[in-house]
Design goal:
By secondary structure, the chain is an alpha/beta fold. It has three domains: 183 residues, Rossmann fold, CATH 3.40.50.2000; 175 residues, Rossmann fold; 65 residues, no CATH class. Helices cover 34% and strands 19% of the residues. The chain contains 15 helices and 20 strands. The strands form four sheets. An eight-stranded mixed sheet has the order 3-4-2-1-5-6-7-8, sandwiched between helices. Helix 1 packs across helix 12.
Length: 467
């Protein structure tokens, strides 16, 4: 069958720019190996826009004139948007299936007659969030329990039946690629010595939410307070044509922070590596830091690093709270620099490699083959369904509420993923610690004022639960 795919990210024949594009590559390649004709439409990168083959039966058309670099990809003229709609319409002619990678095609009328699968790969970027409300998918793929819960308790409140279309497919890790490998070649190339240097990895895009300020602060504490003067922090340079003025300003601010804290010489900015070199980088490190506030729906870096034998330290934000048990990965509260420092010291004093039991757990939970097979099955078996209709929810005094999936309680405080901070929880902590569900009527009987109840709802601390 002919399968058309859409990516709002630009795609390249010689490099992968992030986790979402990497998974799209593997899914499309697998479908091509099964004999399907796969056409991938994506944003047109700056410079050349030649068609290219990702694999046999997989053709990439980088022709859509979205505004690059991000943010605001839809900041285009009506003329350009019309051309993109026409291009996608023409490409869909004769197609058997349409697959939207990350839910960012926001004009559902274009695919109203074609069986369509939408994969939601994050819960924070505006186009993806809007896509959960405006998408008219026949089937939906979510990459984690956390992500599916967020969608269920946001868009799902207004579209009964949305949950029944959702499939949970964890991002997979190709353990044939991501494993503990010889890192001597990349060490020589980067000019680091793993027998001398304690190597931090910060393999993230240049966004404030990805945790670079926290990595700098942790490094400063270790260097200045614990005399770990052998620390080297490897940070990738972002791809030039995808660097925005916001990225440049962020880099400048981070350089000033490094200088102010006296750790500028401990940071090395390295070239953006192709995917096949990443296992070498992961294997080179002593610790991978994922300390940011960005609300990851999955978070490839932390778990790819672990697959290569290098422990990760993650902030308890988004999926990192629940994807792995606490005993398998070091977790700290966002902003807890002391906790992150303690975790690094524990790793430094103990074994700096992943135990065999952890590897087996990762292989079982994040099975790469299972992932691509599941996508292929969902896409090829998808059939056209009736469009879900907007239905305003009706609440009663007995309506049950739960703590929102984007919140968690700690020491009588509540952390909100989308606000990136802790706030006093007061009565809410007492009530929700004792019971996972509470109605307005029950809360009033426990002495909660109407004003407090309303504030919990307006702050999105609690969400209604619908059967």
């Amino acid at each position: 069958m002919k399968i058309v795919m859409f990516s709002i990210n630009p795609l390249y024949h010689d490099r992968v720019t992030g986790g979402a594009s990497k998974h799209l590559y593997h899914i499309s390649r697998y479908l091509g190996e099964l004999g399907h004709e796969v056409v991938v439409l994506c944003a047109k990168p700056k410079g050349t826009a030649d068609h290219f083959k990702w694999a046999e039966n997989v053709t990439v058309l980088p022709e859509l004139a979205f505004n690059l670099p991000f943010p605001q990809p839809y900041a285009v003229s009506g003329a350009d948007l019309a051309l993109m709609v026409e291009k996608l319409t023409d490409t869909l002619r004769g197609a058997d299936r349409f697959y939207i990678h990350d839910g960012e095609w926001l004009l559902p009328d274009v695919y109203e007659k074609i069986p369509t699968v939408i994969s939601f790969r994050d819960n924070i970027y505006p186009e993806s969030v809007l896509g959960t409300f405006t998408g008219k998918a026949d089937e939906i793929v979510c990459v984690s329990e956390y992500s599916s819960s967020v969608i269920e308790h946001t868009a799902g409140r207004f579209y009964p039946g949305l949950k029944e279309r959702m499939h949970l497919v964890h991002n997979g890790i190709d353990f044939g690629v991501f494993s503990d490998v010889d890192s001597s070649r990349i060490a020589r190339r980067l000019g680091v010595d793993p027998t001398r240097d304690f190597i931090f990895l910060h393999p993230h895009r240049p966004e404030a939410g990805k945790g670079l300020p926290e990595t700098i602060q942790v490094t400063a504490r270790l260097v200045n307070d614990y005399q770990m003067t052998n620390i080297k922090v490897l940070v990738p340079e972002w791809i030039g044509e995808m660097t925005s003025s916001v990225d440049s300003e962020f880099y400048n601010a981070m350089m000033r922070l490094m200088a102010d804290l006296g750790v500028l010489d401990h940071f090395m900015f390295i070239p953006w590596l192709p995917i096949e070199r990443m296992p070498e980088l992961y294997s080179l490190g002593n610790v991978t830091l994922c300390l940011g506030s960005i609300v990851e729906a999955f978070g490839n870096v932390a778990y790819e690093s672990m697959a290569c034998g290098t422990p990760s330290i993650v902030a308890r934000v988004g999926v990192h709270r629940t994807l792995l048990p606490d005993e398998l990965v070091a977790k700290v509260h966002f902003g807890d620099i002391d906790g992150a420092v303690d975790a690094v010291l524990a790793i430094n004093e103990g074994s700096d490699k992943i135990e065999e039991g952890t590897t087996r757990y990762l292989q079982s939970k994040l099975d790469f083959g299972k992932q691509v097979r599941a996508y292929a099955e969902i896409i090829t078996s998808c059939e056209k369904r009736d469009v879900l209709r907007f239905t305003p929810p009706v609440h009663s005094e007995d309506q049950q509420y739960m703590l929102a999936p984007w919140c968690y309680l700690h020491d009588r405080q509540i952390y909100h993923d989308f606000r990136s901070k802790f706030e006093p929880a007061g009565q809410l902590a007492e009530i929700m610690t004792g019971s996972p569900l509470i109605s307005h009527h029950e809360a009033m009987n426990l002495g909660v004022s109407a004003e407090a109840w309303e504030s919990w709802i307006l702050k999105s601390y609690i969400v209604p639960v619908f059967k």
